[in-house]
Specification:
Two copies of one chain form a homodimer. Chain A is α+β, with helices and mostly antiparallel strands and 333 residues long. The first copy, chain A, folds into two domains: 113 residues, 2-Layer Sandwich (60s Ribosomal Protein L30, Chain: A), CATH 3.30.1330; 159 residues, PurM-like C-terminal domain (Phosphoribosyl-aminoimidazole Synthetase, Chain A, domain 2). Chain A contains nine helices and 14 strands. In chain A, the strands form three sheets. The first copy, chain A, has a seven-stranded mixed sheet, sandwiched between helices. The first copy, chain A, has a five-stranded mixed sheet with strand order 1-2-7-5-6, covered by helices on one side. A two-stranded antiparallel ribbon of chain A has the order 3-4.
Chain lengths: 333, 333
C-alpha cells in the first residue's frame, strides 16, 4: 500500500478498506473486528465509535454535534440494536469560542433527547492553535440487541429476491456541506438530512418485517454500501436508477459540480434489505415516518453477476456500481 | 466563564471543571453524567472514553497507541470494572507515514493483549495537512462490573481512617514527555510509567481488600485527584510528602524546570483508598506485582479540615493541595 496516509484513506472507499485490512485488522485481529460491521456485536450489546471532523462545523440542517449523535445512533440502529448510551469526547483548538461550543453541545443534547439516548461519559482535550481545526468530536455508543436481530449487521440471511429499500432522497448531506463551504459560490436551500433513524428502524422491526440487512449510507454514499454488500456477501444486486430519490436542487448541484449523487454522503439515509413479502409493509411504515416520507424500493438481490452491484440506468443501460477509488469530499462528516 | 477555549480547559484542573459543569453537564444533564466518575456505571457495565493527543507521539516508554489502550483500560479498572472491549478511532493528518501508524497500531494490539481486552470496533478519518497534528486517537471502553464494586467509582463508602495507597513513583509520564520534547535540552533516561493496571487492581479486589475508591492520576497528577476527592466527597485528607515515591531523576528534572511532581501526569499510577485493616495486605499484593514494586501508603482520610487535602511537607510544614489552576503541560496525554 501507499507509504503515507492520503485523504482517500479516510474516504470510506477502496483506500480505506486497504488501510483497515492491512493495518488495523492485521494487528488487532479478532473475530469480532473481522466482521467489519458498523457496530461490534458483543453478546447482548452493540458497540460502535466514530470521530467527526466535518468542515464547516455549522451547516444547513445541523452541525458537528448533531452529526456526532445521529451518526452513532444510526450505526447502532442499523445493526438492529436499540441505542442506549453515548460517550462524547471533544478535541478543541485553543481560542475556539465557548459560545459555539455551547451551540454544538446543546444540539447534541437535543438530538440525544430525540433519539432517546443518554450521553453518559465524556472527555475534553485542548490543543494549541493550529494543531486541530476548531473542534473534532468522537462519540461511541452502546445499544441493546435481541438475539433475533443479530444476523442483520452481517446480512447472514440475505437471499435472492430480497428487496432493497431506502428512506428518502440521497446526497443531501454532502451537497449541504459543499454549499456550506461556498464551493462554486452557490446559493442553494439544500439542507443536510442528518437525523436519528432509530425510531423509523424500530417501527419496521417491531412490525415483524423480515429485515435481512441495514446500513446507513454515509461517507461514500449508497454506491459504497451497495458495492461493499455485493462484494462482501458474494451476491448480485440490481438498482433501478429511476427509482432512487434525488431532489431536484441536489441533482442540479451534483451535475454542475461533477459529482455522482450515488457517491455523495448522507447522514439520515438507511438502506434496508427486506424479504420480498414484507417490502410493501416496510415501505408503508417508512413513508408514514417523518424521516421516511420519500421512501422507495430501489432494487433487489439477484442470482446473477455475483459480487457485483449493477445499476439499470435511466437511459436503459447497465453499469457496475463500484467502490469509491479516491477521496471525493474530505471532512464530509 | 471565559469567552474562548484556553489550553487550561483541557488541563483536568479548575478550568476543565468549570467547562464540564457550565457547558457539558448543563446541557447533557442526567444522573449518570453528573457523577463525574471516570467511567459511567450502567447496570452491569462500565463505559468510558478518552481522546489522546500526546505530543510527541513516540516517547520513552510508549507511544500514543499504548497510552490510548492503557488509559481507557485504567479508567475502567479504577471503577472496579473488568475491562473487556475497546474501540479505536483515528484522526490522521494527510501525509502521515503509514509505517508510523503501523508501529502505533501494533503497540495498541500488544497492550490490549497484555490487558486482556479486545479492540472490537473502530473508525478512521483523514484531514488535510495542517488540520490536525499527526494523529489523534480516541478509545472508548466497556467493562463488566460486579454489584459489590459499584460504590468504588463514587467513593460512597469512604470513612475516616481509610488509608491512601499508590502503586509507585509519580510524575514519570509527564517528565518523559517533556524530555521527549527536548524541553531544556535534557539528556535523561526517564521513562513513562504507561501501563495497564487492571491486573494489579483485580488482584487487590479479588483478595477481598475493602477498596473504597480508586482513581488513576493522569492529567493534573495526584494533586488533582486528591483535591477533587476531598472537595467532591466533603472529606479531609492528609498526605505525607516523604512517603510519596518520586524517582531521583524525575525529582531533579522537576526541580530544574519548576514543576511540582504532585501536578505532573502519570499513566500507570492508581490511588487506592482502602479500609485501614486491609491496607497492609493490599500493599503487599501491590508490591508483588510488576506495576507496583514501589507501592506505598502515602496518607489517610481524616475527620479534620473537611473538603481539603493537606500535605505534611518534608520540612515539617503543612499546606493545602489545590487543584491545578491553568494548564501545566498541554498535550501530555
Amino acid at each position: 500500500m501507499e507509504k503515507n496516509i492520503l485523504l482517500g484513506h479516510g474516504s470510506g472507499g477502496k483506500l480505506s478498506h486497504e488501510l483497515i485490512e492491512k493495518v488495523f485488522i492485521r494487528h488487532f485481529s479478532n473475530e469480532i473486528l473481522k466482521q467489519q460491521t458498523d457496530s461490534a456485536i458483543l453478546d447482548q450489546i452493540a458497540f460502535t465509535t466514530d470521530s467527526y471532523v466535518v468542515d464547516p462545523i455549522f451547516f444547513s440542517g445541523g452541525n458537528i454535534g448533531t452529526l456526532a449523535v445521529c451518526g452513532t445512533v444510526n450505526d447502532l440502529a442499523v445493526s438492529g440494536a436499540t441505542p442506549k448510551y453515548i460517550s462524547a469526547a471533544f478535541i478543541i483548538e485553543e481560542g475556539f469560542p465557548v459560545s459555539d461550543l455551547e451551540i454544538i453541545v446543546q444540539s447534541m443534547a437535543e438530538e440525544a433527547e430525540k433519539a432517546g439516548v443518554m450521553i453518559v461519559t465524556g472527555d475534553t482535550k485542548v490543543v494549541n492553535r493550529g494543531q486541530c481545526d476548531k473542534v473534532f468530536i468522537n462519540t461511541a455508543g452502546i445499544g441493546l440487541i435481541d438475539e433475533k436481530h443479530k444476523h442483520i449487521s452481517t446480512g447472514a440471511q440475505i437471499e435472492t429476491g430480497d428487496v432493497i429499500l431506502i428512506n428518502g432522497s440521497i446526497a443531501d448531506h454532502g451537497m449541504a456541506i459543499m454549499a456550506g463551504r461556498n464551493f462554486g459560490n452557490f446559493k442553494t436551500d439544500i439542507t443536510s438530512d442528518c437525523a436519528p433513524l432509530n425510531g423509523l428502524i424500530r417501527e419496521v422491526l417491531d412490525a415483524g418485517c423480515r429485515v435481512k440487512f441495514m446500513r446507513d449510507a454515509t461517507r461514500g454514499g449508497i454506491a459504497t454500501v451497495l458495492s461493499e454488500l455485493a462484494a462482501g456477501k458474494g451476491i448480485g444486486l440490481e438498482i433501478d436508477e429511476p427509482e432512487v430519490p434525488v431532489s431536484e436542487n441536489v441533482r442540479g448541484m451534483c451535475e454542475l459540480l461533477g459529482f455522482d449523487p450515488f457517491y455523495v454522503a448522507n447522514e439520515g439515509k438507511v438502506l434496508i434489505v427486506v424479504h420480498p413479502e414484507d417490502a410493501a409493509k416496510a415501505l408503508s411504515i417508512m413513508k408514514n415516518h417523518e424521516f421516511g416520507r420519500m421512501s422507495a424500493a430501489i432494487g433487489r438481490i439477484v442470482s446473477e453477476h455475483q459480487r457485483k452491484a449493477i445499476l439499470n440506468t435511466e437511459i436503459g443501460g447497465r453499469r457496475i456500481i463500484d467502490m469509491l477509488a479516491g477521496e471525493q469530499l474530505p471532512r464530509i462528516c
